[in-house]
Amino acid sequence: MKVRTFAVVAPVLALASMAWDAAPASRKNPGWNLSALPMIAKVDRRFQSYNIEMVEVTGGRFWAPYGGPPEEVYRQRPPIDLANPRLRRIASLLGPAYVRISGTWANNTYVPLEGEAMAGPPPGFKQVLGRDQWRSVIAFSRAVDAPIITSFAVSAGTRDAAGRWQTDQAQRLLDLTRAAGGKLAGAEFFNEPNLPSLAGVPAGYNEADYLREFAVFHDWARRAAPEMKILGPGSVGGAIVDGKVPANASGALNSDSSQTLIGGTKGKVDAVSYHFYGSVSQRCAFLNIGTAQKDEALSPAWLDKTLRDQAFFADLRDRFEPGKPLWLTETAQAACGGSPWASSFLDTFRYLNQLGVLAQRNVQVVMHNTLAASDYALIDGDTLEPRPSFWAAVLWRRTMGQVVLASPPVTREGLRIFAHCLPDSRTGIGLLAINTGTAAADLPITARGTSWTLRAVPLDSRKLLINGREPALAASGQISGLAGRSFAKGLIVPAHAIVFARIAGISNPACR
What we know:
- By secondary structure, this protein is of the alpha/beta class.
- Strands 1, 14, 15, 16, 18, 19, 22 and 24 form an eight-stranded antiparallel sheet that branches. It has an eight-stranded parallel beta barrel with strand order 2-5-8-9-10-11-12-13, surrounded by five helices. Strands 3-4 form a two-stranded antiparallel ribbon.
- Helix 7 packs parallel to helix 9.
- The longest helix has 18 residues.
- The chain is globular.
């Protein structure tokens, strides 16, 4: 079958060439004229965000750590301690952000009444969200500057005798949120509605059922929580085969239903949301769709998979919801908890490249799954030790602001450059250089700045070096090993390395 590809890189490169051409012609090696880089997008101030799965909050069976029985997919885990000072310090380093409390398990989680005695989940639900557990979510959200995005239960327990979805559980979660002094910044109706077999909805649930129930949800949300953004559909998967979405003769929802879901809810969402995983982990090899391969981790095909689904959903947005923001509300290295190398430096290339290319295409928010659970998490959930991509996320927050600029021109194979205005200055540029190649690259920067070089040996190591030092977060919350290095003119990006740079004093009109 022929998979349609999308020409998304050429316009950015064409704009980027202006940054070279605008330099004085008399200069033999003019370098980059960073003051001439044009603005191409502007993202949400909470662009880099993260997920905490609902099952983390309640406790329950989540993706099993590697090293157990070969057939083990899930393992019981206790509720996450959102009051832990170290966890809050870690999350605050990523703020401002959104925290999405959702995931597959949110589809069948019960919210009890105050004082309701619970021996276990009621019929039609699989887990119980303790009221104090949700209060801890509210407190965490406020402490780390991360407004809450969520979704609601839709399983059999939420339905009347005729199988129709009722708003009672959604209203109970909303009321509890307000009583705890919080608010819901946004919500999807339910998690990944194009995979209803995972949601506990009635057998045979189809697109017409979803659209009818979404209308009920929409009317309730606009009345009960007018300040809450409605996101949708939050579906996963979007590959177009032979130039079209494959037909679905049965009418049942599946991974190809996004067009119908978006078209059928036209005018009823504040942002178009979707989920993306480039593949699945070994835990889900039984799906027979292939797994993420370590030897492909630095390949353009792997790094740019995210562009395929972005283009697919952007096209649907433009057709049905023109002008609405595009949000990626769940993404990571591989579905089903991530591969064993998801927690290593090797995946940091994908993590940062995804932020860079999606920002250039005006995706407003990217929510990484997860903050602290399983192999794809930014930190180890048991030890609360940061992983390489966490430190990269901190440097992104400090370097790459909301205003996205065209990339300076590059000709070196394997070198990718992203440019933003600084997040905290009107006269400066932040650069991110990703070198997947086997040779060092020289960046023709003609100004002074501060840089951070990220490396690991071997590439799949969980020990990251930044400017030759291992970063750390002490028990007191103090960071070490994250000092920048000054440079005067020019900057070297070693092979298989990542470099951030802050270049102050650049007067670019887009940054004012």
